[in-house]
Amino acid sequence: MSNIVKKTETAFAAPALRLSRRSFVAGASALGALAALGVTGCAPQSGPKAADSGEEGETEDFDAVIVGTGGAGLSAAIAAYDQGLTNIVILEKMAVTGGNTNYSSSGMNASETKFQKEQGIEDSNALFAQETLDGGHNTGDEELVTFMCDNSAGAIDWLDSLGIKLDNITLTGGMSVTRCHRPTDGSAVGLTLVPGLVAAAEERGIPLRMNCEAKELVVNDGAVEGIKVEEKGKPKTLNARAVILATGGLGANQEMVTKYRPDLAGYVTTNQPGATGDGYLMAEAVGAELVQMDQIQIHPTVEQETSTLVAEGVRGGGAILVNAEGNRFFDEMSTRDKVSAAEQEQPGGFAWCVFDQQVYDNNKAIAKYDKAGIVVTGDDIADLASQIEVDPAALQATVDAYNAITTDGATDEFGRTEGCIAFAPGAMYAIKVAPGIHHAMGGIRINASNQVLDADGNPIPGLYAAGEVTGGIHGNNRIGGNAVCDIEVFGKNVGEVVAAALA
Q1: Residue 261 falls in the annotated catalytic set
Q2: Contact assessment for residue 502 and residue 63, using Cβ atoms and an 8 Å cutoff
Q3: Which of 161, 187, 213 is where one domain is finished?
Q4: Is residue 406, in this structure, part of any structural domain at all?
Q5: Residue 313, domain member (yes or no)
Q6: For residue 366, how far is the Cα from the chain centroid?
């Protein structure tokens, strides 16, 4: 049945969504680890008292309902609240906050930031936008890309004002300038960003409704006026003057992935199990246009047994990729689509991400990979080669040639010019990687005011969206570090836009 519910109807249903067993197990394991770290959000808080109760359950009234507690949803709520819109609520269908933002590892790309200037890094919004468009093979929405890049430094400042400092800057593939902002200690950005945003929401008393699944949008005369939910097994209707969808992507829904990309059947996913595409269905049912839905990004460095994403910052910090024969085969700092394609052409369709002690020490995420048991350690190059069963002479020659790029100024045969740091003698490490489903680049069509648009380009009254659920920003290839920029810039923006619209 339709996912549109008019106020006079009593329907309460939504299409069933299925997770592949492997995807669910991997995601559930990761969520368990996050819960152990205390990333569980605040306890459900009570909102306004029920205005009505009937066959469909309780009815509550809000100015705005935000669906999703990833970076976009949390940022939207905080920004709206700070602009005076306080009668709001955030919904989360899972038992933990954060969504896929919890798994964000590389950092947040941003240009012309105060931290770049402090560190003598020259950058420009125009260059950031151009490299983003180039990285997406000029299939991204130029207006949205320009808006994101122009407002990226402001988002960095805003996060800093919330106590979330991202001043450790590194490089990601497809970028010519060091602009990927990480926490001071170089750790994965998600596990700093989510707790920081949750704390800011709690400080403001913004209610977070956990285990509360959005089902259907309520419409009246073409305008969205609320949302039907199921909270802990009970139906409720939340009336609202605006609904903000920040529901994330579809990477954990194998059925939906293969609907748009049959060739990705059987791929592991880096997504958390709640990324099942709910927002697309709800928005499409009220007339929203979905764009570029076949553009589902695979990430080249995913450990296949645990679905652990090995952050792009590892390669940006100096790591190389070698095949089963111990040879490099491509520029590791190229865009994700090209690296993935080259990797799939290697014997066995996999690669070893190889690095030394310097890279290990400079990227805090590696210690977590090691603790998880996915890092192979060797006393030196020959020992590592033996551990990963490649020819020691071939691996030594590969490392020597790579070191010459920096030490002797040699030209890399694969064209790598960024993030080249000569390996030092001593311990060497490797992680076995192959491509995995990572990010939905297509999604709900929006404008720079985060209004959801129909096929004619007209805004659907009362409906807004931000984050991975939206499409058009990244085109057919997303640059590492741009997802966090996307969710923060557009998450903050939609909160401010809605607050202004409802003032």
Answers
A1: no
A2: yes
A3: 187
A4: yes
A5: yes
A6: 19
pLDDT of 427-472, one tens digit each?
A: 999 999 999 999 999 999 999 999 999 999 999 999 999 999 999 9
18 in the Ramachandran plot: left (φ > 0), alpha (ψ -120 to 50) or beta?
beta
Taking only the tens place, the pLDDT of each residue in 363-389 is: 888 999 999 999 999 999 999 999 999
Write out the two tokens for 51: 């205005």
Q: Which of 336, 416, 445, 478 is labelled catalytic?
A: 336
DSSP secondary structure code for residue 276 in this structure? S
**What are 404-416's pLDDT values in tens digits?**
998 888 899 999 9
Domain membership of residue 397 as a residue range? 298-436
Question: What pairs with residue 276 in β-bridges?
Answer: none
Q: State the DSSP code for 289.
A: P
Spacing of C-alpha 434 from chain mean position? 19
Q: Note the pLDDT of residue 15.
A: 30
Tokens of 170: 């590194």
- Give the amino acid at 102: N
Residues 6+ apart with CB under 8 A from 32: none
3-state DSSP helix/strand/coil % of the chain, to nearest 5? 35, 25, 40
In a domain? residue 32 = no
Dist CA 421 CA 107 (whole Å): 20
Give CA–CA dist 52/84, Å, rounded. Answer: 26
419 Cβ neighbours under 8 A, 6+ residues apart: 171, 315, 316, 317, 318, 332, 333
Position 25 scores a pLDDT of: 34
Angle at CA 189, nearest 5°, toward 185 and 191?
95
Q: Give a yes or no: residue 370 inside a domain.
A: yes
Of 155, 171, 187, the position where a domain reaches its end is: 187
Alpha carbons 98 and 191: distance in angstroms, whole number:
9
Mean pLDDT, residues 208-225:
97
Orientation angle between helical segments 482-502 and 142-150, nearest 10 degrees: 90
Contacts of 56-59 spanning 24+ positions with Cβ under 8 A: 56/10, 56/12, 56/228, 56/235, 56/236, 56/237, 57/234, 57/235, 57/236, 57/237, 58/234, 58/236, 58/237, 59/236, 59/237, 59/238, 59/239
Tell me whether residue 420 is exposed, middle or buried, using C-beta atoms within 10 angstroms of its C-beta: 0 to 12, 13 to 18, 19 or more.
middle
Q: Which residue has the tokens 């959005």?
A: 214
- Residue 447 structure tokens: 């404008």
